Amino acid sequence: MNILGISAYYHDSAAALLQDGRLVAAAQEERFSRRKHDPRFPRLAAEYCLRAGGIEAAALDHVVFYDKPLLKFDRLLETYLATAPFGIRSFLQAIPLWLKEKLWVPDTIRKELGWDGDVLFARHHDSHAASAFYPSPFEEAAIVTMDGVGEWATSTVGVGRGADLQLLQEIRFPHSLGLLYSAFTYHAGFKVNSGEYKLMGLAPYGEPRYVDLILRELVDLKEDGSLRLNLKYFTYLSGLTMTGRRFDRLFGGPPRRPEAPLTQREMDMARSIQAVTELAMLRMAAHAHELTGLKRLCLAGGVALNCVGNGRVLREGPFDELWIQPAAGDAGGAVGAALLVHHRLLGNDRTPAAGDSMAGAYLGPEFGDEEVRRFLDASGARYRTLAWDEVPRAAAGVLAEGKVVGWFQGRMEFGPRALGNRSILGDPRDREMQSRMNLKIKFRESFRPFAPAVLRDRVADWFELDAPSPYMLLVAPVGEARRLPDPGGNGATGIARLKLPRSVVPAITHVDWSARVQTVHSETNPLFHDVLRAFEERTGCPVLVNTSFNVRGEPIVRTPEDAFRCFRRTQMDCLFLGRHLLDARDFPAPEPEEDWRGEIEPD
């Protein structure tokens, strides 16, 4: 039984293939098109999934789309009618695209895939909920989904038992926790639907001085996590922006221009909306627990990528265990939609996997040893080929010397995080590593924190966390024993606090002593696990900096060519393409930074 799930037309379009209920492939279109957050129909991603499954489109039994375009169109028209005559510019931009493309999903699927069957449709938040529960290791669990908006729902609470999944309650558009957070993302000068994680990273530099104002003026947040927005402060119903002049007056000025210097106001706004979002997440989780009486919780939807909030839900919430879909945003809807067909429509039983059934999120393309070698030889690159058992020690050795390593191995990750197969690695003990990687390799804002990858059996020794976090979706404090004395007494504020080391692993310790933890498991990634083990044997530290193998504005690399190009145009020191090691000293100096940055779309 072959089921292809598809998500498209909003952001992060993706495809996923189930074979006899097993997820065999999943990928976002951006990795193939090289257009970040590509919303277009995922033709290339779908072609990859079919190749990975060893089938052609004719062998598909079902194709399912992750939401219902007609219901979305209904919401769009009702919103424009309710706000008319305002919103005419937005209407004139949106409607032609709907009439030309978005309303014709079945025709597009048949044309792009060369498939002549019926197309199925799932509701947006059903797809999110299915992506959260069905791959989880839980026999039964409460489910919470949170995002900007699907058709009409913006957040839901549900329950999953065995193969059964039901959504019990919902919050409806225009009232949305995700849109509230995106409004502050926009006002801080970041791009909506891609810059929210920057706002989360900026928050610890600020003070929560606007929390009371937000709760008094912008949002009525109830004890059960439901909410209503004061719509007079927002313009997303009828305009081309998220906020308007009333919002500007409330917070003392207009939105920050993209690329303009960050001020304390943006930092304080980020801290304040992050605090409100965490409060809403905690209340929604508590309500889900009260409603279902269950001990485990599954999360999905774009807000579930807020790993600071997730960490608080795990530590402070009423649930014993938490599982989050690694592709929690719209890309994961392709997985959820396919699983809905398998379990709900076709009535197949479900047996939870011991860890989960996402295969570590390593669901994308891979490139064999000979394929990599042929590329390197064709490009004229100098390289050294190691035996596979030499690779972990060699990588640990150069990392211990303070070198930055491009790491390209195995199957590409599905979702927004690099998890040790398409990664850039560094030594977390190096005080200069964070600024060096941000400014000279990633070409991104200096305030952005980096995540630690840590051996699963050592995580509790280094962080205030003793639970699996394989998908880098939980933030936890660095352990007390690894911290340095509080440097806060020297009067530093804002971004200046970045330069103050806070722990023995300063490159992954944020200004509030937090870290976005990835636990590495030998079962899902034995090679990366061996690198961490070798690094610990050499240095006593089982932790590495792990950031995605890309530069600002570019998707994570997919192919050896993508990786080699990124390596050559940045100041990485070494590149491991499988077991082939390249040293930057064997090549001419990188091309000028401005040439590289000029080719990519700013975030």
Supply the key terms:
single chain, 603 residues, alpha/beta, Nucleotidyltransferase, domain 5, DHBP synthase, 3 domains, nine-stranded mixed beta sheet, five-stranded mixed beta sheet, 20 helices, 21 strands, disordered C terminus
Q: What structural class is derived from the secondary structure elements?
A: alpha/beta
Low-confidence stretches: 594-603
CATH architectural category of the largest domain: Alpha-Beta Complex
In whole angstroms, how far apart are the ends?
Answer: 40 Å
Largest sheet: 9 strands, mixed
Strand content: 15-25%
Helix amount = 25-40%
| Average pLDDT rating | 94
- Give the class-level CATH name of the largest domain: Alpha Beta
The count of helical stretches stands at: 20
Rounded to an integer in angstroms, the radius of gyration calculated over CA atoms is 23 Å
CATH H-tier superfamily of the largest domain: Carbamoyltransferase, C-terminal domain
Q: What is the fold named in CATH at topology level of the largest domain?
A: DHBP synthase
**Order of strands across the biggest sheet?**
13-21-20-14-15-19-16-18-17
